Amino acid sequence: MIRFFDLAGRDARLRFSPYCWRTKMALLHKGLAFETTPWRFTEKEAIRQTGQGRVPVLIDGTQWLHDSWQIALYLDRSYRDRPALMRTDAERVAARFVNNWCDFTLHPALRPLLWIEVYKNSAEKDQPYFRETREKLIGMTLEELSSDRTGAVRGLSTAFAPMERTLQDENYLGGAQPNYADYALFGSLQWANVVSGTIFLPSDSAAAAWFERMLDHHDGYARKALTVREFAA
């Protein structure tokens, strides 16, 4: 069975990484059995064989793989008898664009809304590491970054506008059914959903309706994920 290191929070059941969610949805799409191992930001030794310090890390037999995009390519290449994540070169290029758009446009727009929540919900041993590395990256404290949440929601809406317009006309980025482009985007919004309890988009938006459809795919795997809403209850 495929093994998979999955970023976990203070409670091991809280799994919020957007990149790990991409990989989990890809594995489900391929119909591949897998088991997850909770992993924390500072547990670098557990994945040292990959030569880097981030998850997702997937172990398939003797193969160790990292980086959600590279894992997706590997799954399509190695399991050609299973449903394709990207059926053609054109789909692959389009999915790559969405993947990059999420990383370079959507995630920066989400940072002011989510990084403080990630910090609060991370394992205690991870909190100093997360604060130090993220504050060094942005040149301010997490509290300063998250001080204008109303403005951050407006900024997210502006950044998300091209995707919202697309989803007004299409059920999925993959057309009639989801493909890897959908999983790349879903991972970002599931990050928000799990660690903050909301995706910060209007409930009547096309994106919110799309997100609800995605939650129900693969027997509702993502909908069953625990979020901060359950931990607060």
Describe what you observe in this structure.
The protein has 233 residues and is α+β, with helices and mostly antiparallel strands. It has two domains: 2-78, Glutaredoxin (3-Layer(aba) Sandwich); 89-232, Glutathione S-transferase Yfyf (Class Pi), Chain A, domain 2. The chain is 56% helix and 9% strand. The protein contains nine helices and four strands; from the N terminus they run βαβββαααααααα. A four-stranded mixed beta sheet has the order 2-1-3-4, covered by helices on one side. α1 crosses α7. It starts with a strand and ends with a helix.
Quick rundown:
The chain has 233 residues and is α+β, with helices and mostly antiparallel strands. The chain has helices at 18-30, 68-78, 89-121, 127-138, 142-145, 149-169, 180-196, 206-220, 228-232, and strands at residues 2-7, 34-39, 57-60, 63-66. Helices cover 56% and strands 9% of the residues.
